[in-house]
Amino acid sequence: xxxxxxxxxxxxxxxxxxxxxxxxxxxxxxxxxxxxxxxxxxxxxxxxxxxxxxxxxxxxxxxxxxxxxxxxxxxxxxxxxxxxxxxxxxxxxxxxxx
Amino acid sequence: xxxxxxxxxxxxxxxxxxxxxxxxxxxxxxxxxxxxxxxxxxxxxxxxxxxxxxxxxxxxxxxxxxxxxxxxxxxxxxxxxxxxxxxxxxxxxxxxxxxxxxxxxxxxxxxxxxxxxxxxxxxxxxxxxxxxxxxxxxxxxxxxxxxxxxx
Lengths: 98, 151
Known about the structure:
Chain A has a domain at 8-37. In chain A, 22% of the residues lie in helices and 20% in strands. Chain A is built from two helices and four strands, in the order βββααβ. Chain A has helices at residues 45-57, 67-75; strands at 11-14, 18-25, 30-35, 96-97. In chain A, β2 (18-25) and β3 (30-35) form a beta hairpin. Chain A is elongated, with a radius of gyration of 23 Å. In chain A, 12% of the residues are buried. Chain B starts with a strand and ends in an 11-residue tail after the last strand. Chain B is built from two helices and eleven strands; from the N terminus they run ββββββααβββββ. By secondary structure, chain B is mainly beta. Chain B has one domain (3-132): BH3618-like (Roll). The chains are: A alpha+beta, B mainly beta. The interface between A and B is large, with 43 and 61 residues.
């Protein structure tokens, strides 16, 4: 990994047309300004991770494979605390039970 | 009573009031807005979120508190606005907080980085991606098998 030390107000250029400017630094965060062509996708990494996870989750999951995890939940119901799996705050039904 | 085709349970009838709506869809599925939560008695605490727009799409979810009883919610103002709220809902009485399950390297894992928050009053939902690194997007649901010792 390339490591570059920069201060607020300084920039980094990547390829043709991508500029990342350090706008502000604080003890726990850095604010970046990003200039890039419209064709370049700019995403927070956690958004991409979640997209990938959702795409994997949309594939068929062999329910039997979840058995071991389920057995663990049933044996230890969330340390005795309710798991809050209810869709009904007060009034009736709204959940489809098979 | 309306009916829908589902990915795991064939055709089922459902209560129209049970439907939840994601005004912004879900990451990578922004066009999918309406889902039906389905509970299978033998598979609790899992909750299946069946798309009403695409029968082939069904997310398997688990309540975050079942995975991590100490889980604390963190949502952006934008995500709260999707639910029609201005402050964090309480998990349980006000909102259902679910983690989507997917297979990761052959084992089921839950995304605690981006839980689904369902407002129990408005029945609107959002997949709220955290901006911190407190939780993993691949939290293992089953104990990780120990690596075989080298011989």
